[in-house]
Amino acid sequence: MESSSTEVFWQSAWTVFAFVFFVAVVIWAWSGKRKSKYDKAARMAMDDDKDLTDEQRRD
Asked: What gap in Å lies between CA 5 and CA 3, rounded to an integer?
């Protein structure tokens, strides 16, 4: 069964769109503007421990 030329075009267009979308998400995620939010998220577990008492930490 042969694919029509329009079917091949749309398959190729979808592949290109998906690749461009993926690259855009990677660039967005690694942009310098997001660094402060990632640093804050990385410290969240450590910051939660500050609110615990010594007795709660032993449990």
From this structure: 6
- Vertex 27: Cα angle to 40 and 35 (nearest 5): 15
Q: Whose structure tokens read 């310098």?
A: 32
What's the pTM? 0.57
Q: For residues 23 and 29, what is the distance between their CA atoms, to the nearest angstrom?
A: 10
End-to-end, the C-alpha distance of the chain in Å comes to 66
State residue 43's pLDDT score: 81
User: Quick check: 34 and 28 in contact, CB under 8 A?
Assistant: yes
Residues 28-38: tens digit of each pLDDT: 988 888 888 88
Which pair of tokens denotes residue 7?
A: 């079917």
